[in-house]
Amino acid sequence: xxxxxxxxxxxxxxxxxxxxxxxxxxxxxxxxxxxxxxxxxxxxxxxxxxxxxxxxxxxxxxxxxxxxxxxxxxxxxxxxxxxxxxxxxxxxxxxxxxxxxxxxxxxxxxxxxxxxxxxxxxxxxxxxxxxxxxxxxxxxxxxxxxxxxxxxxxxxxxxxxxxxxxxxxxxxxxxxxxxxxxxxxxxxxxxxxxxxxxxxxxxxxxxxxxxxx
Length: 213
What we know:
Blueprint: H1 5-13, H2 20-30, H3 34-42, H4 46-55, H5 63-73, H6 78-91, H7 97-104, H8 112-127, H9 136-146, H10 152-168, H11 173-183, H12 200-210
């Protein structure tokens, strides 16, 4: 599709040296512009799609449109599509009750990315330090039964949920540690300086000690 002059102007500002902070600055200037967002998304370029997500109107994010964005994201590498998915969740989908309701319906979605969002959202509900939702037992049982059969990007999100359940809910801590020992997920994986290992026994010990829990 032929881009508008507004989209072309943004295109000229973004290159491989553009950082996330730069995208946020541009998005702050634009505010909300769903039509422009769809133009930028149509370029298929990763950074422009990240910017597009920031300026979308979440009230226009229907299940059909999300399915289209999901399908488009599949053309990116695993890391890029996970970043796009998580960016969409954090910046748009969790900002409106309608889209939160959609997230909560994706537990058994045929879409790997939508299942990832479902589980990552559950993890964020616990990570943010608010009173944990009352379904820890239910979710943990599902994670124990399903995590080893899931796709890697969903496994990561399930592991994230189990980690924060183990940190904040002491009665499930041993189960969460045992889950990590059983699956071995992320054991020995190197992490950046200042980051917590994702291997559950290490993650839960470090993060609970930080909080004196």
